[in-house]
Amino acid sequence: TPIKLQEFFNGLANEYAPATLQKVKNILKPAFQKAVDNNMLKKNPMAGVELPKQVKPLIHALSENEITRLCEAAKEYRLYSAIVLVLQTGLRIGELLALTWKDFKPSKRMLYINKTLIQVKDEQGSTIKQIQHSTKTDSSNRTIPLNAGAMSILSDHMLDAGEMLTSEKLIFSTKSGNPYDYGNFNRTLASICKKAGIQRITAHSLRH
Questions:
Q1: Contact by Cβ (8 Å): 150, 85
Q2: Is residue 130 within a helix (H) or strand (E), and if so which, with residue range?
Q3: Most CB atoms closer than 10 Å: which of 68, 80, 109, 153?
Q4: What pLDDT sits at residue 168?
Q5: Are 198 and 74 in contact (CB under 8 A)?
Q6: 146 alpha-carbon distance from chain centroid
Q7: How far apart are the first and last CA of the chain?
Q8: Which parts of the chain register pLDDT below 70?
Q9: How crowded is residue 44: how many other Cβ atoms within 10 Å of its Cβ?
Q10: Are 85 and 91 in contact (CB under 8 A)?
Q11: What is the pLDDT of residue 38?
């Protein structure tokens, strides 16, 4: 019934983003319409269902002083270069962690964004990381001109890469060369924030 479906969507709103709710609605509405067309239902129960309005939490943007303290505290961590690059370019975490060395063009001072790292669960509930050769939206496929700070951090990181420096290798990876886990990235960032004496933020907050 419409009431049960509305309760279902209200429950989803507590755990999932608006875009996810819209995808669920886009699947269910035509599915129920097919049932109507086949005389299994008299009318589509999705017709009166509205997606719950969700208030996005305010994102804490770092001040210049906080950025300085964060970068200083991050120098001892493997993610130092990644954190600085996001601050300089506004990359999404999925875009950042999907970067390979062929995406960096030092001679042109450019970074090509054309893929993203996604995380999905398998049937056992384990997290699987995959490189998806498309970004969040079509307009997210872009070329980013690199300022002096971004060029410097990438050039230094390139020198440190050693045998990992091949065109298909990830620019930022674990010691074993595997993609970073979103959760581990944010936990490390939280530790750096604590060390820097600033409010805890996520990788998404770095974009701002």
A1: yes
A2: strand 127-132
A3: 153
A4: 86
A5: no
A6: 20
A7: 42
A8: 56-57, 121-122, 125, 127, 129, 133-139, 163-164
A9: 19
A10: yes
A11: 96
